[in-house]
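Would you mind writing out the residues of a protein together with its fold in token form for me to study?
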Amino acid sequence: MRPYGGRWLANGEVTVVEGAWPGLVVLMEFPDRAAAEQWYDSPEYQRIRPLRTNNSISDMVLIDSLPADYTVKGFAQQVRTAVEAASDS
């Protein structure tokens, strides 16, 4: 992943304090989505990808970034609003 500007942010066992998380977490960062997609589609990664997909239950997601105006307080309000709307249904 280094040739694509990637770097490890986290890799290892987790301590679950709420909910369920079956296993490890791996978090990587790339300069942008294009670099992440180039890494994912690269012959180097595709060659080793079966090591992950054939030996684990895992999900892989790409996100671009947090919105510029993102705050935890704002996100919490969105969650509260969604919960209230769902309970009114």
